[in-house]
Amino acid sequence: MLDPTSSLEALDGRLASLPLPVEIRGLVYEAGSKRVIDGIDLTINNHRVSAIMGPNGAGKSVLLRLMHGLITPTKGEILWAGRRMCRLTARRQAMVFQRPVLLRRSVAANVSHALGLRGVVRGERAIRVDEALKLAGLQGHASTPARVLSGGEQQRLCLARALSLEPDILFLDEPTSSLDPASTLAIERLVLDAQHRGIKVILVTHDVGQARRLAHDIIFLHHGRVVEHQDAESFFAQPQSEGARAFLSGGLVL
Amino acid sequence: MTDFIDAFKTALGLIATFNPNLVEILILSLKVSLTAVFFASLLGFAVGGALAVYRFPGRGAVSAVLSALMGLPPVVAGLGVYLLLSNVGPLGVLQLLYTPTAMIIAQVVLVTPIIGSLTRQACEDLLEEYDEQLRSLGASSGDIVVTLLWDCRYRLITAVLAGFGRAIAEVGAVMIVGGNIDHVTRTMTTAIALETSKGNIALALALGIVLLSIAFAVNAALIGVQRLANRFAYA
Amino acid sequence: MISSVHRRKVLGLILGAVLLFAAAPTGLKADENFIIVQSTTSTQNSGLFDHILPQFTKKTGIEVRVVAVGTGQALKNARNGDGDVVFVHSKPDEEKFVSEGWGVKRYPVMYNDFVIVGPASDPAGIAGLKDADQAFKKIAEAKAPFASRGDDSGTNKEEIRLWNAAEVDPKKASGHWYLETGSGMGATLNTAVGKQAYTLTDRGTWLSFANKDDFKVLVEGDPKLFNQYGVILVNPEKHPNVKAKKGQAFIDWLISKEGQAAIASYKIDGQQLFFPDAHSGS
Lengths: 254, 235, 282
Prior knowledge:
The complex is a heterotrimer. Chain A is of the alpha/beta class. Chain A has a single domain, classed as P-loop containing nucleotide triphosphate hydrolases (Rossmann fold), CATH 3.40.50.300.
């Protein structure tokens, strides 16, 4: 089950409706005087987990946020199945951040609130909340204040919340960087589960092991540019760029 | 000194027997201040939440003015409302001067900046944490305001209690716009001022004790709310 | 604009607010059967209103709401139309009020008198003097502490008249032996007792004042201390909101046999405070 490569044939109909491919053209983002994203051309056209990797400061998180529409690019464009970002495309995406962001309410209320924002009706909401809690392994904790959960539990909840929205695209920004191995495993299970539901996952990670376990293709970023984009197997076996080589062998990439 | 002790004993007697005069004044004070705080809360929550979330030119100035108005002296608020409601003033046609409604209006003017500023601060603090996630979930600015207000609920309760404390204790505003009319607009604070000026120390003391008790109760409630919030990690 | 879930919550809250407002019986839209009388703190502090007003209300069903401020302010408020009737004690100012068209007609109602009170020790030695301005002169010479209303009230105006008659200008010593409290009679008496100072007060307030310490009435009976009260209906032609009929009903009652008897019957410790004189032409 936990196989990133297992067949997705059964989901053909669903996959066809995904807003893919993602086409990024000439993307530039400047923060103050600094060029954080320095001209990116990128196409992603698969239904599996794509991982964005690179040294700190390479612009990975910024790229994710640009793709999700949280920040506006200085130049360039991002097209989803040929269309520009708009409210409609945004509604079909979800994101989980590095640190779990939960409201000061119960576990169930957190999921319910998100569903409410998307306009899901009462009855349907209750069903989805239930499913989400099951997915996150938090059934007994529906009325627990969300913020007293452990870090791992909170992140599982955030991911389950994102999945309950039934997005087409799921962005994950280093979701397990502060978690213990057991929680990391639980999160990775959920990520693969997402893939099996026909959700396109774009994951930022600096954990090489995680990338090996989950990713189908690797996008390697360095100094705000895409330096490499190839399937995971080839990338790990034979990284093409200087930066990637240094990164994978554990050295400091300047 | 014996005068004071006698007065004190008489005061306790008035309280213990629910002296009708005292009770009437207490009920009017509570009605005026509670009603004022209610409307000030609606206004304050809306303004505070909106200021925290919406970006518009002059936002900083409005926030600064709102903060400054927290220190508005009650007499000045009373004077301002009096000028508005006086028969020769712009709202004279409403004939509201010397009524409890006028007192409520004056107290709303006093309390709204307090609740508004504290709400804005609380929402801003939370917004830093929630902003990206809420926008990711597709929340509009309006959604974000509502979400923040509910999540800040413990801090908002604190703000409301602070506002009530201010309202129930002030004398300047209600004196000017209410006229301290017996059975109509005489509150605890204006009654204390009057009875003291008549030398009726016993009744003034009794009212003072009741007022102090309310102040203490409000303070205790404040501490209780904060403890509750911390316990459930809702702070 | 706001998601459906939140919209419902917000609407519910607003509805609740409206219902609460409607249900709250705070007399927000009080019944109209009342008049507002602008009167003075001394009259109120004497307790006269608590005694006579219920009788008027019982007879006519009209509630009388008294706003007690200084005479100057009462007349000013009435000029603004913030009242239906004025009931003060400063004849020259009252006549001016009417002649300037703000009031309909001035009716004399009652009189009481002023007295000079002071500490039993009587540092200026004025006890028993028959001449009020003589007493003031002696107080000024002794630089004995004197508490003044300093608030443009009827009492204050009377006090100023006495200083003028004594050919003394006490304001030069304001803050030294001459203390201007800017307050009502009761508050000023509190200050006088606290500072062991002389003061001019109307007898009514003095009798009902509960914080006398060892103070006594030291000077009384001088005709200059005679204090006449007048009542005037605020001119409805200047301020259409004035409840002319009800206001006039109150005035008529005050000067009627019944009203005058009510005034005369008000006593403290067996002493009558106010002397009705509606038909004396004062």
